[in-house]
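Margin note: ligand = uridine-5'-diphosphate-glucuronic acid.
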Amino acid sequence: MTASDERKNILILGANGFIGSTLCAHLLAKTQHEVYAVDLATHKLAPCLKHPRFHFYERDLLIHHEDIHYLVKKCDIILPLVAIATPELYVTKPLSVFELDFEANLKVIRWCAEYDKRVIFPSTSEVYGMATDEAFAEHTTNFILGPVDKQRWIYSCCKQLMDRLIYAYGFEKNLRYTLFRPFNFIGAKLDDIRNDAGSRIVTQFLHNALHRQPLKLVDGGFNRRCFTYINDGIDCLLRIIENKNACADKEIFNIGNPNENYSVAELAKILKEVLHEFDTKLADAVKIETVSADDYYGKGYQDIARRVPSVKAAKEKLGWEPKTSLREALRRILNYHFNGVDPDAILLKNS
Ligand code: UGA
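Resulting structure:
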């Protein structure tokens, strides 16, 4: 048995989130690890709940410090995935972003350092801000953020400071860490499809289409994103957790799909085409309109024109590459919403 085959206790804070819930299912289906999951609810975790290696704790990171402290001490690998990660909330609730994404997570990092735990922390594609490099690289791209009264950047700024702090703990105290930067992960469980507003783009567009509301292109929909299917992202995270020959120790990895780079207007068009495969009438009824950023988000918003990851580090050190096209990802998302096909449930059933 190699070190990477050993059964570990893995703590996932924010397990009912988009990344957390999919990661739990994949860990249970594909590894022998024990999964300790913390969150306020379990609806995205339904396929995992009865699994013998799944241990759920209904706790709030902002309140139940003692319990979470205990769990950090008990476990071997810690993934603190609790965060506000929707741009609408960066603009309307910047203090909550600071309190949760920075302050609450800081406590966890300090416990990881104190008890010599391995931590795998979610940085973000947003740390690069409005950088102008063709492709953003972990060690060479400069971060460019807007002014203070564009509070959209508070999320980027909090995550950046967490990155720098974790790096510093590694540098001075030998904390074993990996930082990963998701680039627009998409999947069926991204945001709540029932919400009228405030979701990230794919969920928001789908909600609008299903409710016969127009898809709104902020400032014309010219800004571009690279869309990454959640299962590709999780495949990369599993390699980081496995950490063969310590390949992920003290490393930073962009996780994204540089080949699936589309403007928001192109995304709207492609979504409409894929929707056609599921419901012709509904797809034909989809209207697309433009709205100003001020009207949609308010004055504290500023956008990122293009954001392409370099995934050279993940390829070279982890042997990882993204595989899923935007179209295929959208098909799987629609298959969940139209036909109830939950890929996590299928995975666990077949494991
Ligand atoms: C996201 C979020 O900050 C995080 O989830 C994450 O850290 C990061 O980026 C990532 O996933 O890489 P952003 O890409 O701006 O930020 O999030 P979306 O809300 O999905 O917006 C994407 C683009 O669509 C933006 O240009 C936005 O203005 C536009 N948009 C959004 C519309 O044109 N219409 C809408 O109805 C919603």
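Residues 94-114 form the longest helix (21 residues).
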